[in-house]
């Protein structure tokens, strides 16, 4: 007896049936039982496989499991929605981190070399941003760590090869993990601004855009300019020289960035600046 797994084979079989559009036969049945009025009831025993054609509505099936101890379960399965093909993303030159880690410095160099080889052989199947996301979300983080900051595949390869050779590079940082401390975000002061400094995050990060929108709503009754236009670079560059513009603009960017960090699990203990 399959105990806790009782019924799971039926679930698996019906999931396959839903996917492939074929109703499987009931096994080991020579003749239907005479205890059921098959002629007048809207049920039938499948003695052989039958096509399950698409009708424009999702296929549904019920699976019953009757345990020897009297535990009964009944599950209704529904065909999954058809996946709509997504357009291939246009490659961008957005800067992103490639994070590698290992148990030793020698292993870390080997990891960097293997990642470089992967990027060299998978240019068409693995976009750089997808590789970067996978490295931070699907890999175990070990004690020796390094990050290569790259805005293109060529930059990534240069940084990874340098890391593999033990070179010191401005686009790569390596080190050993230490006991976790407290996290503090420092908001920079005037002088860190540039034209269009918020455009990319406004377009790509809903979290950032929402926080900036909240800042814009709080400011609008006090100013005669648009915070969003300033951050997108849709205003004359001279506006970034006005202290009454750049100070709230920088503050809004920092508030948005803090929200982005929080959204990915980096919650600061304090914010200063």
TrEMBL record:
It comes from Streptomyces hygroscopicus subsp. hygroscopicus. The keyword Transferase applies. It comes from the Bacteria. Keywords: Multifunctional enzyme, Transferase. GO terms for biological process: fatty acid biosynthetic process. It holds the Pfam family Ketoacyl-synt_C. One of its GO terms (molecular function) is fatty acid synthase activity. This is Polyketide synthase. InterPro entries: Ac_transferase_dom_sf (IPR001227), Acyl_transferase_dom (IPR014043), Acyl_Trfase/lysoPLipase (IPR016035), Ketoacyl_synth_C (IPR014031), PKS_assoc (IPR032821), PKS_Beta-ketoAc_synthase_dom (IPR020841), PKS_NRPS_Biosynth_Enz (IPR050091), Thiolase-like (IPR016039). Residues 1-79 form the Ketosynthase family 3 (KS3) domain. The keyword Transferase applies.
